[in-house]
Amino acid sequence: MSEQPNIASAAFLIADPTRAAILTSLLDGRARPAGELAFAAGVTAQTASSHLAKLLAGGLLAVEAQGRHRYYRLGGSHVALALECLASMGPAGTVRRKPLGREAQSLRFARCCYDHLAGRVGVALTSALQERGFLIAAAGKRFEVPSDGVEWFGAVGLDVAKLKRGRRGFARQCLDWTEREHHLAGPLGAEFMTLFCARDWLRRSKSSRAVQVTPKGWAWLEAQLGIDERSIVGAAY
Q1: Could you tell me how far CA 49 lies from the centroid of its own chain?
Q2: Is 50 found in the same domain as 104?
Q3: Mean pLDDT within 27-53
Q4: φ, ψ for residue 99 (rounded to 5)?
Q5: DSSP 8-state symbol, 166
Q6: What's the rounded Cα separation, in Å, for the pair 197 and 201?
């Protein structure tokens, strides 16, 4: 008898609204204590503790002890990918919705998708890289980096040859759940995000997944990839 993946077990854990809120609050890749996760999910510490135990047992979370404190994070990038894919499965057609609040607008504009850039800015960045031939969409939801791309990324400060390859290479297509288009993920996407933050082109929020593009970042994006701040801001709001 061949073993089958236990999809139902993972689906059951994610389907609970409280557990879904806990998982979503960790999609920026950071580790958080139980009290902060309880607040994010709108439940008591005791209730959060029960849900955290189930998520740990199911492999969706990992925990790290530091002194008397325990910090929880997603079980890996595969968990983040599953959550983003599930979030993108809603209807793609025009649906009447209430106007987005400020936080929701910020997340749609630019946010962390675990360890890489997502939202309208992430999609625009990926599209510009493809238009210039620095990324090429390939089978298996991968991106290939041709020689021109290797040269361009090298000039920016990323040595593509040194990136660790995963099962699907080092550059992956991740479906953006707000934009319904792909943004750049995988080791290349993660290193790109790290570089942007290190050079103060992007600034991550301390309290949410939102990401801010700095004036220096906008100047670089326009000079290097023709990404104009006004066109993206105008389309997003």
Answers
A1: 25
A2: no
A3: 91
A4: -55, 140
A5: B
A6: 6
